[in-house]
Write a structure and sequence with these properties.
This protein has four helices and ten strands, in the order βαβαβαββαβββββ. β1, α1 and β2 form a beta-alpha-beta unit. Strands 3-2-1-9-10 form a five-stranded mixed sheet, with helices on one face. A five-stranded mixed sheet has the order 4-5-6-8-7, covered by helices on one side. The protein is an alpha/beta fold. Helix content is about 20%, strand content about 35%. The model has no long low-confidence stretch (mean pLDDT about 95). It is globular. It has one domain: 4-Layer Sandwich (Purple Acid Phosphatase, chain A, domain 2), CATH 3.60.21.
Length: about 160
């Protein structure tokens, strides 16, 4: 069994303490872009093994270092990731088609700062943001993979600025 913490859109802000302990205690960190700075990327990469893509707000150094899309396998599950999958949480049919194009079991997207998980024959997930959420709590996603099974859940890390 493999436990993954998925985050996105950290934007070089201070991470919640409860997130740091989750990241250190997981099997892998997956970051769907918008670290903003190389120092944020280096810090997170120093906490645990990490797979990442670059986002639209990332510095030139990270855009050169990180891919726009990534596809990787954990146990028997193929995971795809892209920062800018879509601009809303409403209709995810375009993301489903992207998942099929990438031939993945799970598609992770960032950019919209609002968390969601949609399960069909593909699990589509956006972890929101642990630092600058949009009308949502600060969040991450935990994926638990056991062979060919995957389960995802949104983890609240505290209220966002609009909810204090």
């Amino acid at each position: 069994m493999t436990r993954i913490i998925v985050i996105s859109d950290t934007h070089d802000h201070e991470l919640p303490d409860n997130l740091i302990s989750l990241l250190k205690g997981t099997d892998m960190i997956v970051h769907a872009g918008d670290f903003t700075s190389a120092s944020c990327y280096d810090y997170l990469g120093g906490l645990n093994e990490m797979v990442a893509v670059h986002g639209n707000s990332d510095c030139a150094e990270l855009r050169r270092l990180l891919p726009e899309r990534a596809v990787f396998t954990v146990e028997d599950i193929t995971i795809g990731m892209v920062h800018e999958g879509q601009l809303s949480t409403g209709d995810t049919s375009g993301l489903w088609y992207l998942a099929k194009e990438l031939d993945v079991d799970v598609l992770i997207v960032g950019h919209i700062h609002t968390p969601f998980i949609k399960q069909s024959d593909v699990l589509i997930a956006c972890p929101g943001s642990p630092t600058v959420p949009r009308l949502a709590d600060k969040t991450a996603i935990e994926l638990v993979i056991d062979g060919s099974r995957v389960h995802g859940q949104i983890i609240s890390l505290g209220a966002g600025a609009c909810f204090l």
